[in-house]
Amino acid sequence: MSTPIHKRLDEFRQLDRVQAGSLIISVFGDAVVPRGSRIWLGSLIRLLGPLGLNERLVRTSVFRLAKDEWLGSEPVGRRTDYLLTPSGQQRFEDASRHIYASSTPQWDRRWRLIVVVGELGGRERERLRQALFWQGFGALGADCFVHPSAELIAAFDALVAEGLADVLPRLKPLLAADATLGTAASDAEMVRRAWNLERLAGMYADFVGRYQPILQQLRDSAGDVDDESAFLVRTLLIHDYRRLLLRDPELPDALLPAEWPGQKARLLCRELYRRLLAPSERHLDAHFQLADGRTPEAAPLLFERFRDVDPLLQPL
């Protein structure tokens, strides 16, 4: 009989098109970084094979990530380790603060604005819009981007990492208190204009619908899941959740609709992750390798993720 875990894995394997590069980024951030931020390419291929990613697809995706300066390579004899570049490491650290946080950040009631003050060509403007969209910024017209809590220095660093350094002199970062922009009602109107919260809420609801049965399965069976399946589901869980957070400006509760599904998704991800952590780490202990044949231990920091929840999350 097919279980929710098997259903989710089969569902992914049957996708006509997989964004393998994005999935590999998720694997690096979640599983490779705690073990030293590097992995032998052959080991990565073997870990992702059970998800239906063949060797050629993984190799091509890794080479593309290296070309885009996410990853670097180090040959060790006839094998090669792939590791995060400094800019890739910074991107992962920024993302991790959001993915593994126990709650959304408190709002200081100041809006972060990035205003275009110089001329931009059509292609540059679209690249800028896309890059800021992936950081959670909303757009107010063509020349103003807004976020409630982003670190503007980090946002500009991310634009440099995306190859948009030449655009920075034509951008002006600003901080604006909500009183400067108007009343609470105007804040709500700005949120409505800048973000499609209805669409985001639907995406969160889909996430909950996809993973709630898996969590219920683990609750009912007292965590009985084989090590490989635990690793594969953990990978898809964090991959799907990361992609959601990239679209989420993490608005304060005061600016969100009642019963916002993002909080339910966060709590679900948190509990499911900690239930999958021990068996998935056993799988990595058995199959994670560097080019020299060693298997590095996971850093203690891994076990601090979602630490505030309950005793289920303990070092192995």
From TrEMBL:
Gene3D superfamilies associated with the record: 1.20.58.1460, 3.30.70.2650, Winged helix-like DNA-binding domain superfamily/Winged helix DNA-binding domain (1.10.10.10)
Domain Transcriptional repressor PaaX-like C-terminal: 195-285
Transmembrane segments: none
Any Pfam family: PaaX_M
Span of domain Transcriptional repressor PaaX-like central Cas2-like: 105-150
Start and end residues of each Transcriptional repressor PaaX-like N-terminal domain: 20-86
Protein name: Phenylacetic acid degradation operon negative regulatory protein PaaX
Species whose genome carries this gene: Thauera sinica
